[in-house]
Design a protein that fits this description.
Layout (H helix, E strand, L loop, with lengths): L1 H21 L10 H10 L3 H10 L13 H9 L7 H38 L13
Helix pairs in contact: 1-2, 1-3, 2-3
Length: about 140
């Protein structure tokens, strides 16, 4: 039970400290952010409670206020792959490159078959010819 009297205020202090560090400067109320950090750390039980009650501008869904401008800017930077034109272009380029490579391989195979057919028609006098000569 005595450990609980130490652990609960410690956990509250750690939570308030991290919450204060993650809060933007524009969302802190009444004092600068650095002052709140010192209050949380110096006044062990009272500091975190005061921070949670009065230190941060809380936003709830009922007021309709949205995320801060920094958070909105961060959201706009990330785009899903299927909505990202650069990603879609890279897929198209990869597909075109694979298609061109496949066509090139196909042409090489056709050319080799044509050369074989030509050799067979001409009697196959080449060194690679494995068929016995006809007499």
């Amino acid at each position: 039970m005595r450990a609980l009297l130490f652990i609960v205020p410690l956990a509250l202090t750690i939570y308030a400290f991290i919450d204060c560090l993650n809060t933007s400067e524009e969302d802190t109320k009444h004092l600068p952010k650095i002052a709140w950090v010192f209050i949380i750390l110096l006044f062990w039980i009272v500091g975190p409670v005061v921070w949670l009650v009065a230190g941060k501008a809380r936003r709830n869904a009922a007021t309709g206020t949205g995320p801060s401008s920094w958070q909105r800017g961060r959201r706009q930077q990330w785009v899903a792959p299927d909505d990202n034109p650069d990603f879609l272009k890279s897929l198209k380029d990869d597909k075109d490159a694979r298609k061109a490579e496949a066509e090139s391989e196909s042409r090489k195979a056709e050319k080799a078959e044509d050369e074989e057919e030509l050799k067979r028609r001409n009697g196959g006098s080449g060194p690679d010819d494995k068929t016995p000569p006809t007499s």
